[in-house]
Write a structure and sequence with these properties.
The complex is a heterotrimer. Chain B is an alpha/beta fold. Chain B has 10 helices and 10 strands. In chain B, strands 6-7-8-3-9-10 form a 6-stranded mixed sheet, sandwiched between helices. A 4-stranded antiparallel sheet of chain B has the order 2-1-4-5, covered by helices on one side. The radius of gyration of chain B is 19 Å and the shape is globular. Chain C has one domain: Rossmann fold. Classes of the chains: A mainly alpha, B alpha/beta, C alpha/beta. The interface between A and B is medium-sized, with 17 and 26 residues.
Chain lengths: ~280, ~270, ~260
């Protein structure tokens, strides 16, 4: 897909611009702020724009807010992308196997999917993190645990339609093994609608991670935006900027992911419309 | 000559809208090596169901299919996949019958790889040879299927079917969707391949004109049964069944105008 | 015979496609004349039919003129032109009874109230030889066979007594036997109503059995136009000759039928 197709709407351009900015922040964090973002950098509760060495001020313990914002971008984006990738991977494999095998296998897999969908996703994440303990890997797993069912359902529906197509019949006629048919002929063609869901999943994953951190269940060794918001909660009246600044970053990140995702979907649709 | 394919008493019932109806009702026929049998009939007569059952895409309720003397209907798994090499199929719409992501070379490579027809290192050469065999430029190998014309796609489908050196190819309305000039080319390619390699065809069509150009024998189907079967020239010249008569009468013919010379150019 | 339709320098381009779909077509159609347009895919034959009926997509650009000398207003689909598409399954509304689909055209174009329009629809379903038309009018498209659906589409196309019937590959999706029935139906209706016919087809023999004149199209241009007898017996271009040579008929049958 050419870049011009991705950037055909102003919303898509804005989305990619925001994501690009956040990506740069994440990459530049260790260069611009080589020190530990959790270390004390100055006097506590310094307001923004007072001291140009600490432009966004400091929190209750005197930690640099700007440095936290940059390092937080790393965590938020990494967790969001990893969780989304994991849930799409697990979801499409489960959906493909269920749809392609049919019968008993389909029944079992889809009832498991039902079971996961009937429990509120956030509760599931919360339960896992509180049992296993907070670390980035566990947070990613916890989020994926609640998000894989959507891709699974969409992949299965898509596979059910694709497996009746002539090219699947043709693959059977030449003697292709069913596993190869499922993963080479069917799955790649079932993916586009699943991937269209990925922006929603990434956005939800970023928010879930923030919520977990806000509740104190994030990885304590990494700065996260959710953790920063929680940190500012105690002094919300006297120093609202401590919650507002990471809050704005969170909103921008989610917005950027949504808009860019829409842009990709529109670009793909335009290509298919022309074909 | 002993038969290559012996189909006996194929029956298949479907439920549609709560009603049970017979898609196939005791269909029997034989095909000799190197022979073309045409299965002709109106839509809904069951001819495509026969194709799908032969290729084990649909399981019949009753009947037997003996191919090279071996019963196919009991076979499963690896044993079935191994037998598929000798029994291939070309579909009506090649665009629908190809993975939209595949390249021409990839489509022809699949059967070569799966059945281990040639060594891995020799496969690119085998693909080139097959492309040439069906009259395609070797530059097409890297193209995707939506980047080539309808006639070229059907040639790729034939190359893919030929790759495993089959004894029988089922052609399910394989020339029906093609343009007139392209159809004539594909029919002569099929005839040439049969002459050179001795492959047999089951040619499924509703178009008696195309059938006359390629078939040795014709079986006419209607309502899930074979209502007439015989030598192609005989069936077309003097059909005995009502369906056969209707098909012959309905096939459009170029009118001949009195006083004007009739157009004469023989199709080579 | 008076002139019904005059095309002068007609050209059509689709957005994003370099080659014109149709270029420099000059064509006349007389009242009550049956003209066949034949060609392969990409020849522009369907584009011509759609241009005449005003059915081109918004993004297509039109050159030249389409004139209706006998008409003091722009020709409209339904009232002046009846159009039959290749695939009746997609040209009919799946959630409307077939009687109402025919009646709707009558109601919209003939200034009839719904009762009268429905009565006329049943008459039309009878004219296209559908069995038990009064009962069938209440059926939905999915309850009919492909041939029956095409009969309904023809009934809807001719209910407002248009001067021109356009059949765009109207029989290509049908099997041989049903195709022959639909061609016979079109021939009879055109003769009874004195309609002109634009019969778009890839099948030269089918066209020759129905049309007074045949126009051969290739790559968006008209390469030859002649009376059916001339074109079949003495084709002037190599392309027409090739199309005739590629026709796969049943020789014995052709001789017997004349």
């Amino acid at each position: 897909m050419s870049l011009s197709r991705l950037f055909r709407t102003p919303e898509a351009v804005a989305g990619f611009a925001i994501l690009g900015l956040l990506g740069l922040m994440a990459l530049a964090a260790p260069l611009l702020f080589p020190g530990d973002p959790l270390a004390i950098a100055g006097q506590p509760l310094l307001r923004p724009f007072q001291d140009w060495a600490l432009p966004l001020g400091t929190d209750r313990l005197g930690r640099d807010v700007l440095s936290g914002l940059f390092h937080g971008a790393r965590t938020s984006l990494a967790v969001g992308l990893a969780a989304a990738a994991a849930s799409i991977f697990v979801g499409s494999v489960v959906g493909t196997v269920a749809g392609f095998a049919g019968g008993f296998v389909d029944e079992v897999l889809m009832r498991i999917t039902d079971a996961f969908q009937t429990v509120p996703g956030f509760l599931l994440s919360l339960a896992l993190v509180s049992v296993v303990g907070p670390s980035l890997g566990v947070v990613v797993m916890a989020i994926a645990l609640s998000a894989w069912t959507g891709p699974a359902r969409i992949a299965r529906a898509e596979v059910l339609s694709i497996r009746e197509r002539d090219y699947v019949a043709s693959a059977r006629v030449i003697g292709m093994h069913p596993i190869e048919i499922a993963f080479r002929e069917v799955l790649p063609n079932a993916l586009p609608p699943v991937l269209a869901l990925s922006s929603v999943i990434v956005a939800a994953a970023i928010l879930t991670e923030a919520a977990l951190s806000f509740l104190g269940l994030g990885d304590p060794n990494h700065v996260t935006w959710g953790g920063m918001i929680a940190e500012g909660r105690a002094v919300l009246r006297s120093a609202p900027y401590l919650s507002v600044i990471p809050g704005i970053a969170l909103v921008l990140a989610v917005l950027g992911v949504y808009l860019a995702g829409e842009g990709v979907v529109e670009g793909t649709a335009a290509r298919e419309g022309q074909a | 000559m002993s038969a290559l394919l012996e189909v006996d008493g194929l029956s298949k019932r479907y439920r549609r809208g709560g009603k049970d109806f017979a898609a196939l009702d005791g269909v029997s026929f034989e095909i000799a090596p190197g022979e073309t049998l045409a299965l002709v009939g109106p839509s809904g007569s069951g001819k495509s169901t026969v194709a799908r059952i032969l290729l084990r895409l649909v399981v019949p309720d009753a009947g037997s299919i003996r191919f090279n003397g071996e019963e196919l209907l009991g076979l499963r798994g690896g044993a079935l996949r191994a037998r598929r090499a000798k029994l291939q199929m070309v579909f009506q719409d090649p665009l629908a019958a190809f993975n939209p992501r595949a390249t021409v070379a990839g489509l022809i490579d699949d059967p070569l790889r799966i059945h281990g027809i040639v060594e891995r290192a020799a496969r690119p050469r085998a693909i080139t040879a097959l492309l040439k065999r069906v009259g395609l430029a070797t530059e097409l190998a890297g193209r995707r299927v939506h980047e080539i014309s309808g006639g070229q796609r059907q040639r790729v489908a034939i190359a893919r079917a030929l790759a495993t050196r089959p004894a029988l190819i089922v052609l399910d309305e394989a020339v029906s969707a093609l343009d007139v000039l392209v159809r004539a080319d594909i029919l002569s390619l099929l005839a040439e391949l049969q002459r050179d390699e001795g492959v047999a065809y089951l040619f499924i069509s509703h178009d008696l004109g195309a059938v006359r150009a390629i078939a040795h024998r014709i079986a006419i189907m209607d309502g899930g049964r074979i209502v007439e079967q015989g030598d192609a020239a005989t069936v077309i010249a003097a059909p005995t069944s009502a369906t056969g008569k209707a098909l012959v009468a309905a096939t459009p013919a170029l009118p001949v105008f009195p006083g004007l010379p009739a157009f004469k150019e023989t199709v080579s | 015979m008076t002139q019904l339709l005059e095309l002068r320098g007609l050209g059509v381009r689709y957005k994003g496609v370099a080659a014109p779909a149709l270029e420099g077509v000059d064509l006349d159609l007389a009242t009550g004349e049956r003209l066949a347009i034949i060609g392969e895919s990409g020849s522009g034959k369907s584009t011509l039919a759609r241009a005449v009926a005003g059915l081109l997509p918004q993004t297509a650009t039109l050159q030249g003129t389409i004139a209706w000398p006998g008409l003091d207003r722009p020709a409209s689909n339904g009232r002046d032109i009846g159009f039959v598409f290749q695939d009746p399954a997609s040209s009919l509304d799946p959630v409307m009874s077939v009687g109402d689909q025919v009646a709707e055209v009558a109601h919209a174009n003939l200034d009839l109230d719904w009762r009268a329009a429905r009565r006329l629809a049943v008459e039309l379903l009878d004219r296209v030889k559908l069995p038990e038309p009064a009962a069938l009018a209440r059926a939905y498209p999915h309850q009919l066979s492909g041939g029956q659906k095409q009969r309904v589409a023809i009934a809807a196309a001719i209910v407002a007594r248009p001067r021109l019937l356009i059949a765009d590959e109207a029989t290509s999706a049908l099997d041989t036997i049903v195709q022959a029935e639909i061609v016979a139906l079109i021939r009879r209706l055109v003769a009874e109503d004195g309609m002109a016919l634009l019969f778009v087809s890839h099948d030269i023999a089918l066209a020759a059995n129905l049309a007074d004149r045949i126009a051969v199209f290739r790559h968006g241009r008209m390469v030859e136009i002649a009376t059916t007898a001339e074109l079949i017996s003495r084709p002037k271009t190599d392309y027409s000759r090739a199309l005739l040579a590629a026709h796969l008929g049943l020789d014995a049958h052709a001789e017997a039928s004349t």
